[in-house]
Amino acid sequence: MNGETQPSSSQNGLSSNNEKKRVIRLAVGSANPAKIKAAEQAIRQTLDRKDNNLNDYIIEVKGFVVDSGVDDQPFGDQVTCKGAKQRAQLSYLKYREEFGSFPHLAVGFEGGLERINLSTETENSETDTLFCMAWIAVYGRRQALTVDMFASDDTTSYYGDKKPIFGLAKTANFPLPQGITKLILEDGMELGDADDKFFSRTNSKQGSGSVGILTDGLINRADYYVHAAILALTPWIRPELYQS
Q1: I want to staple 128 with a disulfide (CB 3.0 to 4.6 A). Which of 50, 82, 115, 156 is the partner?
Q2: How far apart are CA 33 and CA 212, in angstroms?
């Protein structure tokens, strides 16, 4: 299933095509295929760990183009996380505008950069290394369907949220080559544009991204996001431990 799938009008988590199938309605604050795929994979992996049969549920995904509310190239955790939260929240609202009901979950991704000086005293370097990272925000209410499907078997009771909450997590970070760093810091380019220029590619941020080419395809962009997206789901996996 992809971002073009049209969600059903179901209000109770049951598919209109098959009343025995439970439906997870998922909004993603992006039209980027890698981010939509990562959001769905994170949900699917979380569900499948509990031996939910693939024939027992449907994940209906819809991507929305939304504004992050931050600079095109965010720097630092605080700004990058803010962008992810706004993308999740706005996609949650846009889903309702389009389909008449809120999604069970909305996911926002925001890629960012951070300058870190890792030199030792003996190296005495004043040059910061530019690291690439991303924040993922999951937004929604923990309610009967999602707790039943997502929560750990160790969860004995949970009463649900009155208002939507955020789950947040950060990806691993990795250093960018000096050539890309120079294009960003000296020429003011966004990472995706600097990546295209440095590697002579086109629209790489809709494809493998920096992580794909720097790892020679060992980690694609969707896979890079998935673990952090699962970590952002921990308030749904262990709801009794994360209060509203």
Answers
A1: 115
A2: 14
